[in-house]
Structure formats: C-alpha cells, structure tokens
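look at this record:
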Amino acid sequence: MEINKEYKCHGGRVTYYSHQSLNTKTAMSFSLSIPKDVQGKIPYIIFLSGLTCSEDNFTTKANAYKKASELGLAILVPDTSPRGKDIPDDESYDLGQGAGFYINAVKSPWSENFQMESYIIDELIPLAEQEFNLDSARKSITGHSMGGHGALTLYLKYRDRFKSCSAFSPIVAPSKVAWGEKAFSNYLGDCKTEWLKHDACELVSTSKDDNNGSVILIDQGLDDDFLTEQLRPELFKSACEKSGQKLELRLQAGYDHSYFFIQSFIDEHLDWHFKYLNK
C-alpha cells in the first residue's frame, strides 16, 4: 500500500492511499481521515460516493472532518470503480469507470474488474481495519446518490457488519429507474430477478434486522433535478412501512443534488451514526 498524498485537517489528518486489489485486479484508491488523540480502536464511517466521483469528492467538498474529529470518528472513502487504460469503460457518465454501483458484475467485459461489492466488503474493510486500528465492531455506512444506493444495499445485505446506515439522495429502486436499468443490464444481464438482489426496496423486505431496531436516515432535497425520475424515495418509504423497517426520511425544501446539500447536513449524519456507534 502506498501513500499518494497526506494533509493535516482540523483535529487530525487525511491521507490518500492506493493498493493493488485482488478483486478488481488493478490499483484502487481510497482516502482515510484519522482524528488525533484517539485512544484504542477507532470507530469509523464508510462514505460511498456517487456517479462520476472518486475518493476525492467527499474528502475535499463535504466539510466533514471537523465534526468527525470532535466525535472521534474516522472516515473511509473508497473510489467508485476500478480505473485505468486497461479497464473497460463507456463514453457515458453513468456506466463504466466512475460508475461501479457497488455490485459484482457478472457480464463481460465488466466482470473481470468491476467487483465492487466484494472489494468493499471482503477486501477494503478488512485491510483498513488491520492497517489503521479501526474498530471492526463499530462501523457505519453512508453515501450519496449511487453511493446512497450502495450504502443502503450493503447495509441491508450485511447488517451484522454495520451499526447504522444513512444516505443522501439515494437511488433506492435501481431496478425501476433509468440509471439502475442501464447499469444492471450491462453488469448483470437481462434477468431482472438478479437485479432485485441489489435493489434497496426489495432487500428491505427480506433483510433481517440485527441492530435492535436501528433507524435508517435519508435526506433528500426537494429541488433535486433527479428526484422524480431517478431517486424515488417514496418507493423506499413504502417498502419500509410494509417491512417494519424504521426510517427517518427528511425532505429538505430548497436543496438540490450537489455537495452543498451534503455539507448542509453532514454534521447531523455524523451525530446520527455516533449515537449508534456508541450504544
């Protein structure tokens, strides 16, 4: 593992790393913020970014590290896909590099490298916990847009791994919207039964709650250009009501899909996770 760059931030440091991934068969990058003067194992949050983003967008735009340091939380931010000249890509922004959707592709040419679910769960998390003294028993997950989809689906698939989950403007029903239909048909093929295994609205109906009734938090801007066609939070609300999953869906007037939206509410999300990480 190599350090690409390192910066002092409020109350700690943030470092960009790269390492050779067995799952994606290429070098992968991530950033990690560590608060100073934390004794023992460090509780942490994983943030999954959205379409076109890398590990740099949240790190430089979200203004999260002052609050995280005050709470004694580390934040791990992976890239959104494998990258490089030998990695498959597409001319559009919503497929290929920068658009891994946090799933394992099974269809060529994507299946060789686009194994993002296994990369996050089986490779990056164990690596980070081993190398940086992160607390394996106290981690939570959040994300934005495509990353909100990733946060919800990974949380619902691996409830025993995470204490809590939140999301900003998540794609909650990818099997029913254009972004998800395009990605899933290319990565997974045409069998929609397979798509449903990566759809938060479907997963919430079958996911076993291992966290004693923990509440999922979602913030959604009402001025988001993607709200009605791509995000559809009302579908997840309905699925949660049917399944008994507790949900706090906050519809925020005047906010869009940008990092200004994330900046506005990130402190509240960090407080939300801190509560569960310290139960």
Summary: Residues 259-277 form the longest helix (19 residues). DSSP finds ten helices and nine strands in the chain.
